[in-house]
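Student: Hello, beginner here. Can you help me understand the protein record under this note? Any guidance would be welcome.
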Amino acid sequence: MRILPAVALLVLATACGSSRAPVTAGEFTDRAREVAERWQSSAEREPWIEGFVPLRNLTLEPDRGRTPRWIGQSMINSAWRLETELPAQSPAPAELRWADGGTLSAPVLAATAAYAGLRGMTSIRTKSPVSGWPQLTI
């Protein structure tokens, strides 16, 4: 049986956090097989096969060598200031192209929705834009 990378991660996740005694290699293999079989019939499997599931943030980060440190802190703390009107309509779907020549159409968020997501990020620092973090202007 071939275990897909996503299934391998799922197997590892199911093995974590257990307070049981260590399992034997055979028990682990049986559990891995059970998880893999459930994955094959799972509704969560389809996006991994037919869709686009980003494994990291798709934001293009600036070159930190020439960017002041406070910018990263302001981003983390959602210190945004909007000085323009953003379009509320969603752009046309993006066409993703894979190395093998395949393509996939993916929806694109409206600018207003993307900005709302920026504003909704949770601060992990105690300072707020009002108390010291410079604001980033859009």
